[in-house]
Design a protein that fits this description.
heterotetramer, A mainly alpha (465), B mainly alpha (498), C mainly alpha (638), D mainly alpha (105), A: 465 residues, mainly alpha, two-stranded antiparallel ribbon, 20 helices, 2 strands, 77% helix, 1% strand, D: 105 residues, Helix Hairpins
Chain lengths: 465, 498, 638, 105
C-alpha cells in the first residue's frame, strides 16, 4: 500500500503546486516532481510487509513490490526524458497535468498488480487507461495526437466492455469476485471458458497481443514521444504482470485452456508484429510493432506456468524497460532537437552524434537479444521457460522470429552507421536529465544481464501455479 | 589465477584502451600490443599445457575452473581446455595478430574497426575456452554479431546485402542451436539437476528418441557456420564483401567454430543419433567438398575463388568428423588448423594485392611475379598449401583425413572417400589457374608496372602465417599425436554403442 | 660398416636449396652456381662410394643382397599400424638410382653454369635444381610407399617450377601447368592405390610389402570389386601413378610440352631421372605385382609396348629436336615398362626386371648426353627447329662427336651400352611374349631411323647461313658431354645381373646372338635409311610424307591426343560441370535463401491492409477474434 | 416484481444488448453513437451482474456493487471520450469516425 499512498500524496502535492505557483516559475514543477518521484522510487526499495487489506481486495507480497519498483524505475526514466519536451512553451501550462496524469495511471497500475478481486482490478485498469487517452491527445494542436486519443479511448472502451462481459460470467459461475474464492471453483466448462477468453481479450488489448493489437501502432505514432515510451513500456509491463498474476492465481485450473490459447497468441503476435515492423519508417510506429513482437516473447514466459516462468517474465520486463527506454530516449532527444522521427533521417547519425547512436545501437542489439547486452539473457530465459514446458517447436519459431526482428533492428543501425547522406542530423547537445536517463538505461542494459544476483532476487520472490 | 581468463580479459582491456586512443596510429598500436600479448599468452598456454600433460596430468580438460553464475538455473562460467582447444586458441591468436597488421592502414573509423575486430576475437577465444554450453553459446553469438558492422561499414561491393545475409543466416543457425541446447539442458534432468556443463552432459546417455530429435538442430546449427551444403551461401558473398582482416578472421577462425561445435557438442553429446544420421550429412559434405572445388574453377573474383575453396575444405572437415574414427577426426582437426592458417594467408594476400591493383578480377591481372615477388611467392606457398603439397600443412591434413576415412569398415564410406579425393585434383586445377593467370605470364596491365612490393607490416603478417604452415607440414607428429590423445574419449563415446 | 653418412646425400641438396632459395638473391649468380655444383659433386662422390661399398663389400650376404634400413624415423602417425616414416632404405635398385641421379644431376649442375650464364634468376634455377635432386633422392631411398608418395609430389612440384622457369613465357606457364595437373591426376590414382593397399595390408612398409611373407595380402586377394581382386585394383592404380610420371600412353601428353623448360632441366628431369620414377615404382613394388596382381603386370607390359611404338612413330615426324628426343624418351621408357611387364621372378626368370633397370641405367647416360648435346647445339644456333640447322659438324666438333656416340648407343650398335641393355630386353620379351617381341624389334629399327634423322639433319645436310657463326660451347658444357659419352660407352660392361635381380640373388646372363644379330641388323637398316634420306639435301622424305598423306598428318599432330584432352577439360569440365555448378550455386541455392527473404517481404506488404486505421475495423477484428477464439476453445477443449 | 421471469430470458436480453452494442460499435460512423453502443455493452454487463446476483447468489451483493462501479467508471469514460471527440471536432470539423484515418498501415 505504501507505494500507492506515496503516489497519491505526490499527486496531491503536484496539484497544490499547480495552484500555488505563479505562471513565471511553472517549469520549476518539472524538476521538483522529478526529484520527488525519484525519492518515491528509492522509497519503494525499502523493505515492505506482505499482507492483505480491505478483506482481501488488496494484496501485496514480494513479487508485487518488485513489479512496482520496476514500474517506478521506468516512470522515473520517462520523466527524465520528458524534460526537454515539457519545457517547450506550448506545454508550459500543462506541466503539472502531465505529471498528474502519469502518476495517477501509475497508481492505477499498482492497484491492478496488487488487486485481490476483479472489481479492484477493473478500477485499476480503467484508472490506468482513461488518463492515458488524455495523455495521448496531449498535444492539443496536432491532429495526429487527437486521433491517437480518440482511437485509444474508443477501442479501450470496447475492450473493457468485453472484458467485463467475460467477468460477469466468471462471477455468475463462481459467485464471487474475490480471487481467493474464485480459484477453487474454476473448472473447464463452456461458460467459464467464454468468460475467461473475453477477459483474456481485454487483457490482450492492454498488452497489445495480435489480433487485439490494432490500436497500438496508431496510438504510439500519434502520441507524444514520451507518452509513447510510457505506453510501450510501463502500461504494457503492468498489464502483463497483472495478466500473469491472475492467470497463475485465479485461472490455474484452466491451464488446459490458456496454454494452447497463449501458444496461438504468441505465434500470431510475434509473427505479425515482425512482419509489420519490417516495413515501418516512422520510428515510433516501428517501435510500436517491435513492442508488439516483444509482447509475444513475454507470453513464452507466461506459458510455463511455474516459478521459472514468472521469474523470466519479470526479469525480461525489467530489461525491456531499460532497453526500450534507451531507444526511446534517443528518439525523443532527436525529435525534440530536430523534430525528425523517421529512420531514414538517421543516416550517418553516427558521424555527427556518436554517443547517441552508440546508445541506440546498444538498445537495438538488446532488443534483438544479442549478447553481451542484457536483452540476450532476458530472451534466453524466456525461451528456457518455454522449453521447460516442452514447447520446443514454439521456441524454434520464436527464435526464427528473433532472427527476422534482427533484420529490422539492423535497419536503423545501417542508417546510422553505413548509409551516407549529405544532410545528416546536425550535432547537438542533449540536456542533463536526458543524459542521466540514458546513462541509467545503459547501465541497466550492461549490468542486469551479467549480475545474476538480480535474477536470483526476482527468482526468490517468484511464484508458480 | 586461471590463465584461460586472460583470453577474455586481454581483449576486453584492449578494447577499453582503444577507446582512449586518438587516431589510427594509436588504435593500431594498442591493438597490436594487446593481441601480441594474447599471442604470447597463447604460446605460454601451449607450453604449460603440454608441460602438465608430460607431468602426467591426464584429466580430460586442464586449467578447469568453474564459477556459479545463475544459481537457480545452474548456469556456470566453466572453463577448461584439452589439446584441441589449445591448438585452436593458438590458431586464433596467430590469425588475429596477423589480421591486425593486415589492416594496418584502416583509415576510416579506425578505432571502431579495431574495437569490433577484437570483440570478434573475444567471442572466438571465449568459445574455445568455455565448457558450459550457455557461456559457449553466449561467446558464439558475440563472435557472430560484430560481423555485420565490420562488413557493412568497412566492406566493399554489395556490402549491406552480404552483411545482412551473413548475419541472418548465422542467426538462423543459432535459432537451431538454442533449441538443441535447451533440449540437452532439460534432457540432463534425468541425471539429477539440469545443467549446461559439457563434462556432466558427456556422462549422460540420453534416450535415443530424444537424441534423434535434437541432433539435427545442433549439427545443422553449427554446420551453417561450418559452411555445410546447401547452407553455405553466406560465405562467398560475405567473404567477398568483407574487409581483409575480417575475411581472414572469419574464414580462418570463425568458420572453425562450426566444425568445433559439431563434434564437441552435437556428436560428442548425442553419439547414437550421430551414428544413425551420419550418412545424410556425409552425403551433404561429400557434395560440398567436390561441389565447392568445382564451383571455384569458374569464378573470376579472387575472393570468390577462395570462398568456394573454403566451402570445399570446410566440407572436408565435417566429412572427416562424421567418419567417426580417431584418425579421420584427427585429420579433421588438423585440417581446421591448416585451413585456418592458409585461408587467412590467402585473404591477407588478396587484400594486399587488391589494395595495389584495385581489382580482384583474375583476367585483369597478370605477371605480378615481376612487380611484387614477395607477395607472389607467398601466394604460391598458400596455393601449394591448399592443393596439398607435402611439406606444407595441407598435405598432412588431407592425407590424415583420407587415410582415416578409408579405414572405415563400411564400403559406402570408402567409396565417398574416393569421391572426396577427387577434390585434390580439382583444387590443383583452380589454384594453378589463378597462379598462372595473375602471377605468371606477361605483365597484363602496364599500369601495374609501378606497383610496389609488400611493406614491412604486410611482410610481418604474412610470415606470421607462413611459418606455422611450414612447421605443421614438416614436423606434424607432435601436433597429430596430441590431437589423437584428446580425441580418445570422444571417439570412445561415439563408438561405444557400435 | 654403417651407412649413416648417406643421410648427407639427402641433406646437402636440401641445404643448397634453402641457401639458394632464401638468401640466394644476395649472392653473385656464379657463386650460387658453384655452391650448388660443389654440393652435388660431394654427394656424387658419396653415392659412388656408397654404391661401391654396398655392391662390392657389405651388400651381399651369403649370395643375397640385403635391404639395409639406414634410418627410419616416424613422421606422422595415423593408427598404430599405419604411420608415415621418413628413412633411407638401401638395396640394389635404390643404390643404383642414387648413382644415376647424382651423376646426371651433377653433370647438369656443371653444364648449367655455362648454359644458363647470364639468365635472370640464375640462383632460383640452382635452388630449384637442388630441390629437385633432394626430392628425387628422397623418392628412391624411401622406406615406405607413403614416403615415396611424399617425395613423388615434391618431385612433381619441382618439375613444375623448372618447366615454368621462364615464367613470363605463356607457353612455358601453360606447359608447366599441364605437366603438373596431368601428373597430379595420375597421382590421384597412386594415392587411391595406396589407400586400398594399406587398407587391406595394414602397412606402408616396403620391406613388409615386398617381403617373402605373403599372408598380409590374404584379405586383399579375397576381396574383389568389379571382378578384379582388390589388390589388382591397388596395383593398377599405383601403376597409374607411375604411368603419369613416366608419361606412358595415354598420360604422356605433358612430356613433349615440358620441353619448354631450360634444356638442362629436360636432360635431368625429363630424360634421366624423374620420368623413370614410374619404372622405379613398378620395380619397387614388383613382388606385389608379380604375385598378387599378374593381370596388372600384363597391362604394364602392353602399355609399355604400345607407348614405345606409338612414340617412336611420332618421333619420326617431329622437327623440334627436343621434342624428337622427348618422344624417343617415351619410347625408351616404354621399353623398360615392357621389360618389367614380361619379367618373371627369380633367377633367369627375372631377366626382364634386370633388363629394365639395366636399360634405365644406360638410358640415363645416353639420353642425358643427347639432351645436353642438343642443348649445346641450341646454345650455338639459338633455335631448336631442325630446318634451321645443318652442317654443324665443323662448328661444334665436340658436341658432334659425343652426339654421334649417343645416337649410336641408342640405336643399339654393338659394344656400346645401349646394345647390351636393349638386347636383354628383347631376349626377355622373346622368352615370354612373341608379339611384344615383334613390336620391340620393329621399334628398335624405327629408333635408329629417327635418331639418325635427327643427327644428320643437325650435323650434315645442307649448309645453312647463320646470323652469327655458331661456336663450340664453353668447357663447363663440354666436359659433362665427354664424361657422359664415356658413361654411355662403358656403362654396358657392368656385370649388371650380378648386382640387380628380382629376387636380390645374382645370376649369370650371356649374349643371345640369336636375338642380338637381327636387332643389330634392323638398327643398321634404320641408320642406313636415315642416311639415305638426310645425309644430304633430298626431296625424298617430303615425297614419302606426301604419299602417306593423311596418316602422316595425323602422326605429325601426335594423333590429336592433346586436342582430345583439351576438349575434355575445356568443354566437359569447365563448360558442362563447373559452369553449371557455379550457376546452380548462385541461382538455385542462393536463390532459395533470397527467396525466403522475398517471401517475408511480400507477405508483410500483403497483410498491411489489416492495419487500415479505421476504428470500426479495429472493433470488428477485436470482436470477431474474441468471439471466434471463445467458440473454438469452447468447442475443442470441452 | 420480476418473479416468474426465468433467468435465461434476462441473460438472452443482456446477450442481445451486448451484441447490439458490438455491432453498433462496428457499423456506426458517428462517434457519439459509437460511444452510446459502448454504453449498451456496459449495460449488458450490468444486467448480467445483477441477474446473477439476484438469482444465484442473493445473500451477497458483490454483483450489485460491481454494477455500481461499472456505471460510475462508464460515466468517467464517457466524459473523457466526449472531451476527445470535441477535440477531434476542432481539428477536423467532423466527428465521422471514417475520417480519423490519418495514421494507418
Amino acid at each position: 500500500m505504501r507505494n500507492e499512498l506515496i503516489l497519491a500524496i505526490l499527486a496531491l502535492v503536484i496539484l497544490a503546486a499547480e495552484i500555488f505557483t505563479t505562471a513565471g516559475n511553472k517549469h520549476k514543477i518539472i524538476t521538483w516532481s522529478a526529484v520527488l518521484f525519484a525519492a518515491a522510487t528509492v522509497a519503494g526499495f525499502l523493505p515492505h510487509p506482505e499482507g492483505e487489506l480491505f478483506g482481501g481486495s488488496y494484496r501485496t507480497d514480494q513479487m508485487t513490490v518488485v513489479m512496482k519498483n520496476i514500474l517506478n524505475l521506468g516512470v522515473l526514466i520517462v520523466f527524465l526524458q520528458s524534460f526537454d519536451w515539457l519545457q517547450r512553451k506550448e506545454n508550459h501550462d500543462k506541466i503539472s497535468e502531465y505529471f498528474l496524469l502519469v502518476i495517477t495511471t501509475l497508481m492505477g497500475m499498482d492497484f491492478m498488480i496488487s488487486s485481490g478481486d476483479f472489481l479492484m482490478m477493473y478500477i485499476g485498469l480503467e484508472l490506468a487507461t482513461i488518463p492515458i487517452a488524455a495523455l495521448a491527445a496531449f498535444e492539443r494542436f496536432s491532429s495526429k495526437s487527437a486521433e491517437a486519443g480518440i482511437k485509444l479511448i474508443l477501442t479501450s472502451a470496447l475492450s473493457s466492455g468485453v472484458l467485463l462481459f467475460g467477468l460477469s460470467f466468471i462471477y455468475g459461475t463462481t459467485g464471487s469476485i474475490y480471487y481467493a474464492d474464485i480459484a477453487p471453483q474454476v473448472a473447464v466448462n463452456p461458460l467459464q471458458t467464454l468468460g475467461f477468453i473475453f477477459f483474456t481479450a481485454g487483457m490482450a488489448f492492454k498488452i497489445s497481443l495480435v489480433p487485439f493489437h490494432l490500436w497500438t501502432a496508431d496510438v504510439y505514432e500519434g502520441a507524444p514521444v514520451n507518452v509513447t515510451s510510457y505506453l510501450s513500456v510501463i502500461s504494457k509491463g503492468a498489464a502483463s504482470f497483472t495478466f500473469l498474476i491472475i492467470l497463475y492465481k485465479v485461472f490455474g485450473e484452466l491451464l488446459a485452456v490458456w496454454q494452447p490459447l497463449l501458444y496461438t497468441l504468441a505465434l500470431a503476435t510475434m509473427t505479425i508484429g515482425n512482419l509489420f515492423a519490417m516495413r515501418q519508417d516512422n520510428f515510433k510506429r516501428f517501435l510500436a510493432f517491435s513492442s508488439i513482437a516483444q509482447a509475444g516473447f513475454i507470453l513464452l514466459g507466461i506459458l510455463q506456468a511455474g516459478n521459472l516462468g514468472s521469474t523470466s517474465v519479470v526479469y525480461f520486463v525489467l530489461i525491456y524497460v531499460f532497453t526500450n527506454l534507451a531507444v526511446f530516449g534517443v528518439v525523443s532527444a532527436v525529435s525534440h532537437a530536430t523534430g525528425k522521427e523517421n529512420i531514414s533521417d538517421y543516416k550517418s547519425f553516427y558521424l555527427t552524434n556518436p554517443r547517441l547512436s552508440l546508445t541506440m545501437l546498444m538498445g537495438l542489439f538488446s532488443l534483438a537479444g544479442i549478447p553481451p547486452v542484457a536483452g540476450f539473457f532476458g530472451k534466453f530465459f524466456l525461451f528456457t521457460s518455454a522449453a521447460s514446458a516442452g514447447y520446443y517447436i514454439l521456441v524454434f519459431i520464436a527464435v526464427l522470429n528473433a532472427t527476422i526482428s534482427l533484420y529490422y533492428y539492423l535497419k536503423p543501425v545501417r542508417a546510422m552507421f553505413i548509409d551516407k547522406t549529405d544532410t545528416p542530423i546536425a550535432t547537438f547537445r542533449t540536456s542533463l536529465p536526458t543524459r542521466i536517463s540514458l546513462v541509467m538505461c545503459l547501465a541497466g542494459i550492461f549490468l542486469v544481464g551479467f549480475m545474476s544476483i538480480i535474477y536470483e532476487f526476482i527468482h526468490a520472490a517468484s511464484f508458480g501455479l | 589465477m586461471n590463465i584461460l581468463n586472460l583470453f577474455v580479459i586481454i581483449p576486453v582491456v584492449t578494447m577499453a584502451a582503444i577507446l582512449f586512443t586518438k587516431d589510427l596510429r594509436g588504435a593500431r598500436l594498442v591493438s597490436a600490443v594487446g593481441m601480441g600479448l594474447q599471442l604470447i599468452a597463447a604460446v605460454v598456454l601451449i607450453f604449460s599445457f603440454f608441460a602438465l600433460r608430460k607431468a602426467g596430468d591426464s584429466a580430460e580438460f586442464l586449467f578447469y575452473s568453474d564459477v556459479t553464475w545463475f544459481e537457480s538455473l545452474n548456469i556456470h562460467y566453466a572453463i577448461g581446455v584439452d589439446s584441441i582447444a589449445v591448438w585452436m586458441i593458438g590458431l586464433a591468436s596467430v590469425v588475429v595478430f596477423a589480421g591486425i597488421f593486415a589492416s594496418w592502414q584502416m583509415e576510416y573509423l579506425s578505432r571502431e574497426f579495431f574495437i569490433s575486430l577484437i570483440l570478434l576475437a573475444t567471442g572466438v577465444f571465449g568459445f574455445f575456452i568455455s565448457l558450459d554450453l550457455f557461456t559457449m553459446f553466449l561467446f558464439y553469438e558475440v563472435a557472430v554479431i560484430p560481423m555485420y558492422l565490420l562488413i557493412g561499414i568497412w566492406g566493399s561491393g554489395p556490402k549491406e546485402y552480404s552483411a545482412m545475409k551473413l548475419t541472418l543466416m548465422l542467426m538462423g543457425g543459432s535459432a537451431l542451436l538454442i533449441v538443441g541446447l535447451l533440449g540437452l539442458y532439460f534432457g540432463s534432468a534425468q541425471a539429477g539437476e539440469v545443467t549446461f556443463n559439457l563434462l556432466e552432459l558427456s556422462r549422460i546417455n540420453f534416450p535415443v528418441t530424444m537424441q534423434r530429435f535434437f541432433f539435427p538442430f545442433l549439427f545443422v546449427g553449427f554446420g551453417i557456420l561450418g559452411a555445410l551444403f546447401p547452407l553455405h551461401t553466406w560465405s562467398p558473398d560475405g567473404h567477398a564483401s568483407a574487409p581483409t582482416a575480417v575475411s581472414m578472421l572469419h574464414a580462418g577462425v570463425l568458420m572453425k567454430l562450426g566444425g568445433y561445435g559439431c563434434f564437441r557438442v552435437a556428436m560428442f553429446l548425442l553419439p547414437e543419433a550421430a551414428n544413425e544420421m551420419a550418412w545424410i550429412f556425409l552425403i551433404l559434405t561429400t557434395i560440398s567438398v567436390v561441389y565447392g572445388a568445382f564451383g571455384a574453377i569458374w569464378q573470376k573474383d579472387l575472393k570468390y575463388i577462395n570462398a568456394y575453396s573454403s566451402v570445399s575444405h570446410c566440407g572436408l572437415v565435417l566429412f572427416a568428423l562424421l567418419m567417426m574414427n580417431q584418425t579421420a577426426m584427427d585429420g579433421a582437426i588438423i585440417q581446421m588448423i591448416s585451413h585456418g592458417l592458409m585461408t587467412a594467408l590467402f585473404f591477407a594476400l588478396i587484400g594486399m594485392i587488391y589494395s595495389r591493383t584495385h581489382t580482384r578480377n583474375i583476367n585483369e591481372m597478370g605477371g605480378l611475379m615481376k612487380v611484387m615477388p614477395f607477395l607472389a611467392v607467398a601466394y604460391m606457398i598458400a596455393g601449394f598449401a591448399s592443393l596439398g603439397l607435402p611439406g606444407l600443412s595441407g598435405f598432412v591434413a588431407e592425407m590424415t583425413v583420407f587415410i582415416g576415412s578409408f579405414q572405415h569398415q563400411d564400403l559406402f564410406h570408402r567409396v565417398i572417400t574416393i569421391i572426396a579425393t577427387l577434390s585434390i585434383v580439382i583444387t590443383a586445377v583452380y589454384i594453378l589457374r589463378v597462379v598462372g593467370k595473375i602471377l605468371l605470364g606477361e605483365l597484363q596491365n602496364p599500369e601495374h608496372q609501378k606497383l610496389g612490393d609488400a611493406l614491412w607490416f604486410e611482410k610481418l603478417s604474412l610470415v606470421l602465417l607462413i611459418l606455422p604452415i611450414v612447421a605443421m607440414g614438416t614436423l606434424p607428429l607432435f601436433l597429430s599425436n596430441t590431437i589423437l590423445d584428446a580425441l580418445k574419449p570422444i571417439v570412445e563415446r561415439l563408438t561405444a554403442m557400435i | 660398416m654403417s651407412f649413416q653418412y648417406t643421410i648427407l646425400i639427402l641433406l646437402i641438396p636440401l641445404a643448397c636449396f634453402l641457401i639458394n632459395g632464401l638468401v640466394g638473391m644476395k649472392f653473385k649468380p656464379l657463386l650460387s652456381g658453384i655452391l650448388g655444383t660443389a654440393g652435388l659433386g660431394i654427394i656424387w662422390l658419396l653415392s659412388l662410394f656408397t654404391a661401391y661399398t654396398y655392391f662390392f663389400q657389405v651388400g651381399q650376404v651369403n649370395g643375397e643382397f640385403q635391404k639395409i634400413v639406414v634410418i627410419n624415423a616416424e613422421w606422422l602417425r595415423f593408427t598404430d599400424k599405419l604411420h608415415i616414416d621418413m628413412g633411407i632404405l638401401l638395396d640394389p635398385i635404390s643404390v643404383m638410382m642414387l648413382v644415376v641421379i647424382t651423376t646426371v644431376s651433377f653433370m647438369v649442375h656443371l653444364y648449367s653454369i655455362g648454359y644458363m650464364h647470364g639468365e635472370r634468376g640464375f640462383q632460383r634455377f640452382y635452388a630449384f635444381l637442388a630441390l629437385f635432386t633432394f626430392s628425387m633422392l628422397g623418392l628412391v631411398v624411401a622406406t615406405n610407399i607413403f614416403q615415396m608418395y611424399v617425395f613423388w609430389e615434391l618431385v612433381g612440384v619441382s618439375s613444375f617450377l623448372l618447366i615454368g622457369f621462364y615464367y613470363d613465357r605463356p607457353s612455358a606457364v601453360a606447359a608447366s601447368k599441364k605437366a603438373f595437373i596431368v601428373t597430379r591426376f595420375a597421382d590421384l590414382g597412386f594415392l587411391i592405390g595406396i589407400l586400398v593397399l594399406s587398407y587391406f595390408t595394414g602397412t606402408f612398409d616396403f620391406i613388409a610389402l615386398t617381403g617373402s611373407d605373403q599372408s598380409i595380402f590374404a584379405s586383399g586377394a579375397a576381396a574383389s570389386f568389379m571382378g578384379l581382386s582388390a589388390l589388382t585394383w591397388a596395383a593398377l592404380l599405383i601403376f597409374m601413378g607411375g604411368a603419369g610420371k613416366s608419361a606412358m600412353f595415354p598420360l604422356h601428353i605433358w612430356l613433349p610440352d615440358a620441353m619448354e623448360g631450360p634444356t638442362p632441366v629436360s636432360a635431368l628431369i625429363h630424360a634421366a631421372t624423374m620420368v623413370v620414377a614410374g619404372v622405379f615404382l613398378v620395380a619397387r613394388m614388383f613382388p606385389v605385382f608379380f604375385f598378387q596382381a599378374p593381370a596388372a603386370l600384363e597391362l604394364v607390359a602392353y602399355v609399355g609396348g604400345f607407348t614405345s611404338l606409338f612414340a617412336a612413330i611420332i618421333a619420326c615426324t617431329q622437327f623440334d629436336i627436343k621434342r624428337v628426343l622427348a618422344f624417343s624418351t617415351l619410347s625408351q621408357i616404354g621399353y623398360m615398362m615392357l621389360a618389367l611387364g614380361v619379367s618373371g621372378y627369380g633367377g633367369h626368370e627375372g631377366l626382364g626386371y634386370m633388363a629394365a633397370l639395366f636399360h634405365l641405367f644406360t638410358h640415363a647416360m645416353f639420353k642425358a648426353l643427347l639432351f645436353l648435346g642438343a642443348g649445346s647445339v641450341i646454345h650455338a644456333v639459338h633455335s631448336n627447329v631442325m630446318q634451321e640447322m645443318g652442317g654443324l659438324r665443323k662448328y661444334l666438333p665436340v658436341t658432334h662427336l659425343t652426339f654421334l656416340i649417343a645416337c649410336l648407343t641408342i640405336a643399339g650398335v654393338p659394344f656400346l651400352s645401349g646394345f647390351f641393355s636393349k638386347d636383354e630386353i628383347l631376349v626377355a620379351a622373346w622368352q615370354s611374349n612373341k608379339f611384344l617381341f615383334a613390336v620391340e624389334f620393329l621399334v628398335a629399327g624405327i629408333t635408329a631411323f629417327y635418331m639418325f634423322r635427327l643427327y644428320f639433319n643437325i650435323f650434315w645436310g645442307k649448309e645453312k647461313t647463320y646470323a652469327h657463326p655458331p661456336h663450340e660451347s664453353p668447357l663447363t658444357m663440354t666436359i659433362p658431354l665427354v664424361l657422359l659419352a664415356l658413361g654411355s660407352i662403358f656403362a654396358g660392361y657392368l656385370p649388371f645381373s650380378e648386382l640387380i635381380s628380382s629376387d636380390y640373388k645374382p645370376f649369370e646372363t650371356t649374349l643371345h646372338l640369336s636375338v642380338a644379330i637381327p636387332s643389330v641388323l634392323i638398327g643398321l637398316a634404320g641408320i642406313g635409311l636415315a642416311m639415305l634420306f638426310y645425309r644430304r639435301e633430298s626431296t625424298l622424305p617430303d615425297r614419302i610424307a606426301a604419299s602417306l598423306g593423311s596418316f602422316y598428318k595425323v602422326v605429325l599432330n601426335k594423333f590429336y591426343i592433346d586436342e582430345l584432352y583439351l576438349f575434355v577439360t575445356r568443354k566437359i569440365i569447365f563448360n558442362y560441370i563447373s559452369r553449371p555448378i557455379a550457376w546452380f550455386d548462385r541461382h538455385i541455392v542462393d536463390g532459395t535463401m533470397n527467396g525466403i527473404g522475398w517471401v517475408t517481404e511480400t507477405s508483410s506488404q500483403k497483410i498491411k491492409g489489416l492495419q487500415s486505421g479505421r476504428i470500426s475495423q479495429y472493433g470488428f477484428v477485436f470482436a470477431i477474434a474474441a468471439v471466434g477464439l471463445a467458440l473454438v476453445f469452447i468447442y475443442f477443449i470441452n | 416484481m420480476i418473479e416468474g421471469i426465468p433467468m435465461q430470458h434476462l441473460l438472452i436480453v443482456s446477450l442481445f444488448m451486448f451484441f447490439a452494442g458490438v455491432c453498433g460499435f462496428i457499423i456506426r460512423k458517428n462517434m457519439i453513437t459509437i460511444l452510446m453502443s459502448v454504453e449498451l455493452i456496459l449495460n449488458a454487463v450490468n444486467i448480467n451482474l445483477l441477474v446473477f446476483n439476484k438469482y444465484l447468489f442473493p445473500e451477497q451483493l458483490q454483483g450489485h456493487f460491481f454494477a455500481l462501479f461499472v456505471m460510475g467508471i462508464a460515466a468517467a469514460e464517457a466524459a473523457v471520450a466526449i472531451a476527445l471527440i470535441i477535440n477531434i471536432y476542432r481539428r477536423l470539423n467532423s466527428i465521422n469516425v471514417e475520417e480519423v484515418t490519418e495514421m494507418k498501415y
